[in-house]
Amino acid sequence: MDATTRAQAGRSAEKKTFYTRLSDFLRKFRVIIIAAFAAIVLAIAVIAIVSAINEGAANASSARAEKLVDDYDAYLGESDQAKKAELEKAVLASADEIASKWPRLFAAQRARSIKADVFESKEDWASAEKEWLAAVDAAPTSYLAPIALQRAATAAEELGASDRAVDCYKRLIAKYEGATIGIPHAYFALGRLAEGSKDYAAAMENYKKIVSTWPDDDWTKLATDRIIALKSRGLAK
């Protein structure tokens, strides 16, 4: 047998040995392998089902939210007080249903925002504040979340709850600075509230933040005026 023939025979034997070992391995661990394969197939199926359910929930909730917006517009445009009262009940009930059924979807945030608007129109600031905060938590990454947080702060101020308003403004700045409009206003509000509690150093810090960061913003002139006023009265350096 020449060298070439011996090499071919060796490779053939090596291949046979490999397939034999593979066959033995598959036979020995066939139950585990089948179970693992089944688990993978099941996981893929579950992901597909969950995705389909989520898509269906998003579509269904969006449709309900759009209908709620239409109903709310009808409520706003109704001049007959008796009919308006009935529409208000229907709008609030529908908003509650949406928020309960899809609590972590944008539709819930929109529904809670509409409820808050209704309460604000009736000057029910406590209920409005509660709904605005719930709207933020429903979908904290949406464009509406920072707006709802600002509205919650306003409602808290209307109630005279300055501490809660400060918390809202600080939360707004911490989470949404650079991602939404209204941040200069939040700093100005913090400055104004700090003045109200006679913490003039904190007020100056917030006003100076506006001036240094947003020199061309509409709130900058007001902040500058407050800085001048506090200095002229000897309340800050």
Characterization of the model:
With 237 residues, the chain is mainly alpha-helical. It has helices at residues 3-28, 30-77, 81-101, 106-121, 125-138, 144-158, 162-176, 183-196, 200-213, 218-232. The longest helix is centred in the N-terminal third of the chain and has 48 residues, at 30-77. It is flat and about 85 Å long.
Low-confidence segments: 41-54
Annotation field: number of helices: 10
Largest sheet properties: none
Cα end-to-end separation: 103 Å
Helices and strands: which structural class? Answer: mainly alpha
Share of β-strand residues: under 5%
Strand-and-helix sequence, N→C?
A: HHHHHHHHHH
Shape: flat
**Radius of gyration, CA atoms, in whole angstroms:** 32 Å
Mean pLDDT, as a whole number?
A: 84
> Share of helix among residues?
over 70%
Number of strands: 0
